[in-house]
Specification:
Keywords: Hydrolase, Signal
CATH superfamily of the largest domain: Zn-dependent exopeptidases
Protein name: N-acetylmuramoyl-L-alanine amidase
Number of strands: 30
Structural class: alpha+beta
Mean pLDDT: 80
GO biological process, one term: peptidoglycan catabolic process
Bound molecules: zinc ion
GO molecular function: N-acetylmuramoyl-L-alanine amidase activity
Amino acid sequence: MKKFGFFMFLVVIMIAFPKVADASSYNAKIYLDGQQINLSSGVKVENNNGTVMVPIRVVSENLGFNVGWNKATKTVTVQDGSQNVTMVVGNRLADINGQSVQMTNAPVLRGGTTLVPIRFVSEQMGLQVRWDNAQKAVYLTSTYGEFNPDETTGSNAATVDGLVFDENRLLVAVTGNAKANVSKLSNPNRIVIDMVNAKFSDTFGSNNNFDEINKNGQFSVSGYPDVQAVRYSLYDTNPMTVRIVIDLNHAQNYAVSGLEDGSGLLVVDLNATSDPVPSPGTSGKKLVVIDAGHGAHDPGTLGATKKKEKDFNLAMALKVEKLLAKEKNIEVVMTRTTDTFLELKERAKIANSLKADVFISIHANSGPSTASGTETYYYHESDKALANALHKEIVKAVGLKDRGVRFGNFHVIRETTMPGSLLEIGFLSNKNDESKLFDSATQDRVAEAIVRGIKTYLKVD
Ligand SMILES: [Zn+2]
């Protein structure tokens, strides 16, 4: 890298997507982790024979990758960690860490700007890329953060066999083991059902309105005043995910049942009038288990100035413990109070065997150096209310970017039998986040926020 003497340069990269014919400037939208990226003024997005081009400014500023440009050799490099992608203008062969790989389109020059294929680049850099042809939007999803060994692929995916809306309920017939994540969104009001580890069955299209090429379809609903239409699409391929959206006429509560009982039928019932509340404990006091992530020989992620995640997690957890100990209606149990190591299954086992009411695992994130902000993870549908309650308070207390409440397949929140959340308070890989996270006053505020979130969720004084 160094020998080329690279300098940052405006490079425009292209997004390959199917079935678009027009060839000039193009109005594609780009989303990273659900947030739309604002393109700087004067930046032209271009569609080149089925390929959308966007500025590398987006890649360096929003995705945080290092971009190099050698004018003499017309060579573009994109680098992050140990991953190096090298491309040359006019050459469809790219070099990935020394290996030659063919791209759909060669990089091209437009005036003073170089264009390279974004789908190719993004996927090589570990991002998931999805093109929504209806919305003309590119969705990039970063997969950094906690290592996620259980991510499912298509090979063993369950199938969605059929969909029907009847008696104000959506019924989804499923074969195999899929996970349904259901959430309510506004503007416009809709209920989103993500069937994780599921794809459409081969016969789905013969019984439903379905575009076999774009893998999507919809039907309108009449006779039910709450609902306009039901849409469905293959939303992601890693993990294989079918997304079903119920378009509502107004905000509407719902209840989810099925799948867990092995019936193969997911029911989203709009006749429900209120959200479920946590069941009261037997002892009177609610039991909260606080888990400081990592420990001992497992440092977690290393920060921008090499501070260790395990130390942040423990400091944070001890502050939460101290505050919870003062609560008359809450009992607190820690998975660790010193720099020791526990297996993930031991952490879950502690909470499960104590029949805790709430489990909270405290972590800090890592990613490209520009990535910043707070994320809160749930696994089970029943974890979501807790995650929402915690996230709202934590975001306010940390004062970093709100990266949202997210589904995450983490062992400790998957295997725990009570509502659980995994908190990623900020990015240690980001210098500003790191200094905030290790600031004692910030930690105090976050600890108070976590306690407020717990109390709100448990409805205790
Ligand atoms: Zn961690």
